[in-house]
Design a protein that fits this description.
Blueprint lengths: L2 H11 L9 E3 L7 E2 L5 E11 L10 H19 L2 E11 L4 H17 L3 E9 L3 E11 L14 E5 L4 H9 L8 H12 L5 H6 L6 E5 L3 H12 L2 E5 L7 H18 L5 E6 L4 H9 L5 E8 L3 E6 L2 E5 L4 E3 L3
Parallel strand pairs: 4-5, 9-12
Antiparallel strand pairs: 1-2, 3-6, 4-6, 7-10, 7-11, 8-10, 9-11, 12-13, 13-14
Bound molecules: adenosine-5'-diphosphate and magnesium ion.
Length: about 325
């Protein structure tokens, strides 16, 4: 990009996020230099957001700025790591100052909230895309994994899955909801998802396995099960669907959204029965919104029990009443 545009980038990205004492050299040199704490492991994640693929064309710049960092914070949360440093590869069709201001303000707000410093990146011209690399810190050997779940473990999920998929459907005009308040709540769940960093860190030593829900609860539970070598049974009536989703689409469709919708960025995790007491105490101490939805079982695959029968997850969605 031309020199003037680089000055623009420097203005918006040179001091984004938290100020951290462990950043010796940040944005502005050929590389960043950070000082990792001794006797800790670093957890490294990367996620891309492409216009037309991960967000509709014309999405608000603030939402793109928030989401490009939120999805990475969510991956670190799923690993039980404390977020620390980030790098941003940004591809822009043009250097639009108003767009950059809104993108960087939303990204900076979220990064400061989670103690993340932006330490570098790259800026190119092309179709709109944002790729963030984020590094988190965890004590040695305690990072959460998708594997580790055992038959009998309780399955929990945070927040209210399904809201984001309904919000995206609203954004794309595929869903129409009469109640404007519910519609706005659902849209915001898609545009500004909440990464569950505090919950992820608190689950170290408590959860046996963990994954964040980006592709839909059913599909991501199937991944956790495959990694853990077991199956899962979920009680449809226990799914924590929000009031907004319920009033927008009704109970049946709300469960469908919760199970198959994506982009929730909630945590899906398992807890051994022997640690359920500790889990209950953690919830009482303010862990955050989490709810038990089922159990790991012998075998493989995800089955959802509802009053009308059993639904079997089949890769892309649920077959009703399959056995
Ligand atoms: P070089 O050509 O040496 O790779 P650049 O001109 O690409 O350097 O980048 C200069 C500085 O600005 C580097 O510190 C780089 O990390 C940072 N930077 C470039 N783009 C971004 C961005 N989108 N976000 C954060 N830092 C960026
Ligand atoms: Mg260089």
């Amino acid at each position: 990009m031309p020199q003037g545009e680089f000055e623009l980038i420097a203005r918006y990205f040179s001091r984004l996020g938290a100020e951290r004492a462990d950043v010796r050299i940040g944005v502005g040199d050929d590389g960043a230099v950070v000082m990792p704490p001794s006797s800790r492991e670093l957890v490294v994640v990367m996620d891309s957001l492409l216009e037309g693929v991960h967000f509709p064309a014309g999405s608000p710049a603030a939402s793109i700025g928030h989401r490009s960092f939120a999805v990475n914070l969510s991956d670190l949360a799923a690993m039980g790591a404390e977020p620390a440093w980030a790098l941003l590869a940004l591809t822009l069709p043009s250097a639009d100052e108003e767009w950059l201001a809104q993108f960087s303000r939303a990204a900076g707000d979220l990064c400061r909230k989670h103690g993340v410093a932006l330490i570098g990146g790259d800026t190119t011209r092309g179709p709109l895309a944002a790729t963030v690399t984020m590094v988190g810190i965890a004590p040695i050997g305690v990072a959460l994994e998708r594997k580790g779940g055992q038959v009998g473990d309780a399955i929990f999920v945070s927040g209210s899955p399904g809201d984001s998929a309904a919000g995206l459907a609203l954004e794309q005009g595929r869903l129409h909801v009469a109640d404007a308040m519910s519609a706005q709540i659902l849209r915001d769940r898609f545009l500004f998802p909440t990464p569950r960093c505090g919950i992820g860190v608190a689950l170290r030593g408590l959860a046996s396995a963990c994954i964040d829900v980006s592709d839909g609860l059913g599909g991501d539970l199937e991944k956790l099960c495959a990694a853990s070598g077991c199956g899962a049974e979920v009680d449809a009536a226990a799914l924590p669907v929000s009031e907004a989703l319920l009033s927008a689409v009704g109970r049946e469709a709300a469960r469908e959204y919760a199970l198959t919708g994506g982009e929730d960025y909630e945590l899906l995790f398992t807890v051994p029965l022997a640690r359920l007491g500790a889990m209950t105490s953690a919830i009482a101490r303010g862990l955050g919104p989490v709810k038990r939805i089922g159990s790991l079982v012998a075998g493989k695959g995800v089955k959802v029990f509802a009053r009308g029968g059993v639904m079997q997850f089949s890769g892309s969605g649920f077959d009703h009443f399959a056995t």
